[in-house]
Specification:
Number of strands: 17
Helix content: 25-40%
Bound molecules: flavin-adenine dinucleotide, iron/sulfur cluster
Strand content: 15-25%
Distance between the termini: 35 Å
Strand order of the largest sheet: 8-7-9-10-14-15-6-16
Structural class: alpha/beta
Number of helices: 16
Length: 417
């Protein structure tokens, strides 16, 4: 079986990851390089590392923590959640599944779904369980860029709420975390970033000792900056004049963009649904983790019918160990959050992307392996078969993404389903 490990043995760095386009843009490699040989730059509307050959000592540490090359998801989750009894092949190990929301109606309505992450973080901070959280926020100078940093106050946590459907790199936040005084920190990240963080924790004691918990978002894929540009220009705006951007805000929820000469609101379902995977990078087609199986708690959208959950905005969560379960229950007792237990089936209801990842994406990984082409490697994959449909689907997805990547072809997008 061909994997990146067998390529160009003389190069131990992450060059082969980004040159084969299987980089997730997480920025974790930058944070381990003691030679300061890696910088994270924007390339083709995504974050990508760049290695300075004159500084690199070929130590291989960056490759060791890289999630782009895949992860031993089964081995790692068994090691981290050895006390956790429940297991589901789509959800991973878990203690309980819940649906819920922030009891502060303003937070609930202005967050991505039910504001559970932000409200729970505020509660953890005020109850002195944590000293801060590594979060994402829009860059004040370039509102369509997002930077990561450590939020240490309630105001900073709330300023970071909401989903950012664009590339996010963790390297700035991790730099701050490395320099921070000893303390307890939570990191909120995407499933692939969580894979990298677990690898990082295995090799870096400074970081490991400061991470109190890792929260993951459910993830179908992350769009490139071209996605933002496409929607903003379709609505008569432009990125150069952008002063304010939110991907999901208000009720009904949607994209809010304001600039010197424009201001618009576009309903989330209307703008997101037809575009879906058009602006995803190639790497997302090889991703088999929808629910952040290596995180302590995963959060996402949820659709359940329950009278106790009426109102605007609802988050689903999967808690994977007893310590975090008991903290969630305490936050509920303090009336910071409202939670209702749900079943595995309710968590998986109308969640087609969960099986797309475990079947379709796994078949893409297998296809690439058979063809001796570079792809990520996982130790636990569904038993998938390769047939003409899989090959056609891969070509179709990449063609769609080719159109998304080329502005001169955007006139074709309304014609592509
Ligand atoms: C790229 C992306 C894809 C997603 N795909 C799905 C999906 O397919 N299905 C689903 O059910 N849910 C998905 N989600 C999760 C969903 O959008 C909400 O983030 C989740 O329901 C939590 O809502 P909340 O109101 O509790 O969070 P909030 O209280 O609004 O807090 C959101 C937190 O997430 C952090 N954050 C926001 N964007 C990013 C990012 N890009 N990378 C890292 N951290 C970030 C913020 O710092 C903040 O702390 C996705 C989120 C993202 C960012
Ligand atoms: S191989 Fe070592 S020195 Fe070279 S970029 Fe990676 S971490 Fe830095
Ligand atoms: S660590 Fe992250 S940014 Fe660096 S090469 Fe790997 S996937 Fe890309
Ligand atoms: S689909 Fe997977 S690889 Fe892509 S951003 Fe989401 S977690 Fe990362």
């Amino acid at each position: 079986m061909k994997h990146l490990d067998s390529q160009n043995n003389k190069d131990n760095s992450i060059r082969k990851v980004y040159s084969n386009d299987i980089c997730t843009g997480c920025g974790i490699c930058e944070s381990v390089c003691t030679k300061k040989a890696i910088s994270i730059v924007v390339k083709k509307s995504k974050f990508r590392p760049s290695v300075d050959n004159t500084k690199c000592s070929n130590c291989g540490l960056c490759y060791k923590v890289c999630p782009g090359v895949g992860v031993n998801i089964e081995e790692m989750s068994k090691a981290v959640f050895y006390e956790t009894a429940n297991y589901n092949r789509f959800l991973g190990f878990y203690e309980k599944c819940y649906a819920g929301y922030s009891t502060d109606s303003l937070i609930r309505q202005s967050s991505a779904s039910g504001g559970l992450i932000s409200q729970f973080l505020v509660w953890l901070l005020e109850a002195k369980y944590i000293d801060g959280a590594l979060l994402t926020t829009f860059d004040k100078n370039y509102p369509f860029y997002v930077r990561t940093y450590i939020a240490r106050t309630k105001e900073e946590i709330l300023a970071s709420k909401g989903s950012k459907y664009c590339p996010v790199t963790l390297h700035e936040g991790l730099k701050e975390l490395k320099k921070a005084e000893k303390g307890n920190y939570v990191i909120v990240a995407l499933p692939c970033q969580v894979h990298g963080l677990r690898k990082l924790m295995a090799v870096n004691k400074n970081i490991r000792d400061k991470i109190y918990g890792i929260f993951s978002l459910f993830c179908s894929g992350t769009q490139s900056f071209k996605y933002t540009e496409y929607i903003v220009t379709q609505c008569g705006g432009n990125l150069k004049n952008l002063e304010y951007l939110a991907y999901r805000e208000g009720n009904p929820t949607g994209m809010v963009a304001k600039g010197v000469t424009f201001e618009f609101f576009k309903d989330y379902g209307t703008y997101n649904k037809p575009l879906k995977s058009t602006f995803y990078p190639k790497r997302c087609l090889f991703c088999i983790d929808m629910f952040g199986e290596l995180s302590d708690i995963s959060f996402g959208d949820i659709q359940v019918e329950d009278n106790k959950l009426v109102g605007d905005g609802l988050s689903g969560l999967i808690v994977r160990n007893s310590m975090w379960h008991s903290l969630l229950k305490d936050a509920q007792k303090d009336n910071a959050i409202s939670l209702v237990q749900i079943t595995e089936d309710q968590m998986l209801y109308k969640r087609s992307m969960a099986s797309v990842k475990k079947y379709r994406n796994a078949s893409f990984v297998r296809l690439f392996t058979l063809l001796h082409l570079p792809s990520p490697k996982y130790d636990d994959m569904f038993d998938v078969r390769i047939n003409a449909k899989v090959i056609f689907k891969y070509i179709y997805m990449r063609t769609k993404q080719f159109v998304g990547n080329h502005k001169c072809l955007w006139f074709l997008l309304p014609k592509i389903k």
